[in-house]
Amino acid sequence: MKLNKILTFGLFLLPAFALQSCLKDQEDSFDGSASARIEKYLSEAQKTLQSSQYGWVLENFPDANQKYGGYTYTLKFQGDTVITHSEQDGSNGVVSLYSMKNVDGPVLSFDTYNKQLHDFATPNDDSNVGKGGDFEFVIDSIGDDLIKVHGNRNQNTMYLRKLTEPAANYIAKVEQTAAQFGLIAATGTLAGQNVQLQFDRDNRQVLISDGTNEVQTSYCVTADGIRFFEPVTLGGNTVSELTYSDNNLSLTGNNSQLTGIYDPSIITRAIGSIGSDDNAFSRTLNNLPHLDQFDITTSASWLTATASGSSLQLSATANTTGDARSAKVTITSKMSATIKSSFSVSQMTMNDIIGHYKFIYVNSDNQRVNATAEIALNGSALNLIVKTQLLGGNMTLTFPVEFDQASGSLAIQAGMPIYNQQLTLHTSSGQAVQGYVISAFEFGDGYLSYRNTVYGLMPFGHDDTNGTYAQMGNMKFPQNIGDYAVEGLVIYFAKVQNPMSQDDTIGMIDEWKNCTLIKTTAASPAKANFLMPVAAKPAKSASNLKSLKGYFTK
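Predicted structure:
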């Protein structure tokens, strides 16, 4: 859930809704010149860093406005090396060098590359500072258990907290908390005040409202819950962190007690879509979290859904309609009827999906395109044949596909040639490049896959108004590497027919978002005003989608 109101703390000052630091800088008392004092300060700081048996926790907030939230690292200092762990990187500890510098003040610098520490600071095509992360930290104050620093680039105040257990153990706890924390909202008291919280877990932001005022802050995940970027003060009371209990979905802290509302989309994403042939079936879906928090309903009498503990049982009668059919299973929060999510269940065979379609998508120029398509069986090969305008002319693209019965989806294969010949593209200056038109998918905020082991799923549905239709959904990987929605079907240009690395690719020809198939017949053409969502998402940067705009065929 994206938060709809962002307020900058420096401009949002209310007596009852202030954000303040609870720590005071320590004054140094060194004798001698300023340079000598800083060098002595650095020496003492290094001794403190090295003195911790298990190291330190760094809660790192990249970007000057903390728009990505905070992420947890552990740092173990030994001599001139540091061993790091990160909640974002499940690998073993990474070893790199660090130094203590006098750069207009005392600085802790991680000045050799560390894939964990430099992740948010690595430059990309959009920014020479990456996501605004820091690898140099100005030391503001030193305590036995707490060191206050601020980023040299983003100026964010951050803390190193002394570890009391092995780093790998602590990171594992953070990862577990992050995996379990599935709240979309919470209600109750925060710092003694009645509030409502809305969470954007993707960007680790929380919107806090007391009914009159609103403030947004970022947070990081701890071993026990969440900690705010800055302590939140309401009515004279301050709270810095909240303990999360997944058993009862509660958040507790200093004069704080909140009841959480679990996000139903976590459950529906875990299920995906369910497909079956026309036979009656009964299927049990296990290990689904917090089903007791929801009312579960279906949109058709032929389908029932019953929850018991962490299991959901689906039962369907035989499909004797002679056509495909589908229904929605809706999961609605008992605490708020507006918080709901759904997944589809279909009964169909491959013969039900073969035929002619209208293919609707939004191209990279943010224009809605109404193309024609056919799902055709050629021997044992199933293809999606799309006729559309591309590269300044009419083109017929043939996508290798499969019918994924288990999910009731058309599975479009990535990394395959989709045009019947090699092309030569030219720029207006006459530069020529040869290659093949291939399929690829954008997912996960700018990631691109052109591996032929990856598929984009288009789950089918059917209703009396629209007939048989399908819309782009999630990715299907050969192994469980995460749940990702397809952001776009990418028409890519590559040097070879089956690219395996970036060296094999040239760039993007077009990107199709919100792809929708609507089955047509001569007697019943597709409705021009099909009401499935086809409006383009707001434009966003995708640095690894190199555009070939300006190229044309010759």
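Summary: The CA atoms of residues 270 and 483 lie 8 Å apart.
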